[in-house]
Amino acid sequence: MSASARFKGAAAALLFAAAGCAGQSASAPSELPFAAGAYPVEKAAECELDEAGAPKPGLARIDAPDERTVIFTLCATDPTFIQKMAIVAYGINDSGYLAAATADGSILTTPNGTGPLKLEAWSTEQEEVVLSRFEEYWGEKSASERVVFKWQGDSAARLVQLRAGTVDGIDNVAANDIEALAVDSEYQVFKRLPATTLYAGVNTNFEPFNDIRVRQAIAMTIDSKRIVENFFPAGSAPATHYVPCVITYGCEGESWWPTDLSRARELLAEAGYPDGFKTRIVFRDAVRVSNPDPTGIATDLQAQLAQVGIDATLEVQESTIFDANVLSGLLDGIFIRGWTPDYLEPLNYMYSNFVSKSLMFGPIVESIAAPLRAASTTANSPQRAALFAEANNALREAAILTPLGHGSSAIAWSSAVNGAHSSPIADENFAEVSIDGREQVVFLQSVEPASLYCADESDNNVLRICSQINESLYTVVTGGAEVIPSLATSCEPSKGLTVWTCTLREGVRFHNGARFDAGDVRDSFAAQWDCALPTHVGLSGVFRYWGLMSSFLNNDRCSTGE
Question: Which of the chain's termini has less CB crowding within 10 Å, N or C?
Answer without folding.
Answer: N
